[in-house]
Design goal:
With about 375 residues, the chain is of the alpha+beta class. The chain is about 30% helix and about 25% strand. The protein folds into 2 domains: about 15-105, Arc Repressor Mutant, subunit A (Orthogonal Bundle); about 110-365, 4-Layer Sandwich (Penicillin V Acylase, Chain A), CATH 3.60.60. Keywords: Acyltransferase, Transferase.
């Protein structure tokens, strides 16, 4: 199955078996991801992929202590894809590797995430989504993953091949959208973001989802916008230290790549946003998304969301980001995809590329075809 240019991968069963299914179906894309990051880290630090993988081994024990089942799933991915376990771990910890002081700096993910409550949407639905901005060279590694797992909600996610979690939603009506934040803290080793984010989407209730974010000790700072189908959203700026939070205003919540709730004390004296464009992406998204309240129905509401996320102020480093041809190919950024999840109906919509020139398409699975899928009237 495929969604325009994105493959759709469905896995089920016990952790290792799920991983094998994943690796077998995504073998080519896993190899493509390793090839891209070998080039990217070589460009930024001069290290070979083998050296990157050796250093990534420091995340084995924190990962196993936090989520042994997801380590098993990663081991299965490696078996299915015909690569080493540490290759897969490096793909899952690539955000942590970027911030590790033993590596030269690479910019973190961009992204602009949003949540719309019923009062902010003309059709009364609850929406969650984002523009996922990252290196354009990664586009050939993206996939949509559906995970059917015994005893847990069914999750649909959009990920880079080899990763066990990134952004998505589950059959309990919980959506997660995430953004890089930046800033180095200390040298202690924490849990990779892909595992924490997957734990959010493994949760069958809101409290468990938030505990996955507030009780874990992440290795890096990251923003998490959590939306619930019953009309609740909260944004958590998680760091290896303190956590900040925000709630919607008039039913709308938008977050970019700078601290909006607070600035961690470890960074406060010298903090500067890592992504200057985040400072205008957020208000531009807010302004565009306010128009969704005037939509006359669901089709129009979704069209207005797409229009809002297609804004080009600051082009090419805009809300809808396009590659800057003045940059080396390995460093060019783009909006890899735009997502819009209707938590009221269970429709999971993706524009496979920049939303200005890609329509939202519905993935062939409804979010609520899984445990806890009964929507509260």
């Amino acid at each position: 199955m495929s969604l325009t240019s994105l493959p759709l991968v469905e896995i089920s069963g016990a952790p290792r078996e799920r991983g094998r299914q994943y690796g077998e179906q995504a073998r080519d894309r896993v190899q493509r991801a390793m090839t891209y990051y070998a080039e990217a880290f070589g460009h930024s630090s001069g290290l070979t992929w083998e050296q990157v993988v050796q250093r990534a081994a420091r995340w084995v024990e924190p990962s196993r202590a936090f989520a042994p089942d997801l380590v098993e799933e990663m081991e299965g991915i490696a078996e299915g894809a015909g690569v080493d376990f540490l290759d897969v771990l490096a793909l899952n910890a690539r955000g942590e590797i970027i911030y590790d002081t033993t590596f030269s700096s690479m910019e973190p993910d961009g992204c602009t995430s949003f949540a719309l409550m019923g009062e902010a949407a003309g059709d009364g639905h609850v929406y969650a989504g984002q523009n996922w901005d990252w290196r354009d060279g990664v586009s050939g590694t993206l996939m949509v993953l559906r995970v059917v797992q015994p005893g847990k909600p069914t999750a649909i996610m959009h990920v880079e091949a080899g990763q066990v979690g990134r952004q998505g939603a589950n059959s309990a009506g919980i959506a997660l959208n995430a953004n890089g934040l930046g800033g180095r803290f200390d040298d202690s080793v924490g849990v990779p973001q892909t595992l924490i984010r997957r734990r959010v989407l493994d949760s069958d209730n809101l409290n468990s989802a938030l505990e996955a974010l507030t009780k874990s000790r992440a290795h890096i700072a990251s923003n998490a916008l959590v939306t619930h189908r019953e009309g609740f959203a909260i944004d958590l700026e998680t760091t290896p230290g303190a956590v900040g939070w925000m709630y919607p205003t008039d039913g709308l919540l938008v977050h970019g790549n700078h601290y909006q709730a607070f600035v961690p004390p470890q960074l406060a004296a010298s903090y500067r946003p890592g992504s200057a464009d985040s400072l205008f992406r957020v208000p531009r998204a807010e302004g565009g998304l306010r128009a969704v309240a005037e939509a006359s129905g669901t089709d129009e509401a979704r069209k207005r969301i797409r229009l809002a996320m297609s804004d080009h102020l600051g082009y090419p480093e805009s809300l809808c980001t396009h590659p800057d041809l003045a940059q080396p190919a390995v460093k060019r950024w783009a909006t890899l995809l735009s997502s819009c999840v209707d938590l009221t109906t269970g429709d999971y919509l993706i524009a496979a590329g920049t939303p200005c020139d890609h329509e939202y398409e519905r993935v062939p699975w409804n979010l609520y075809d899984g445990p806890h899928g009964e929507v509260t009237p």
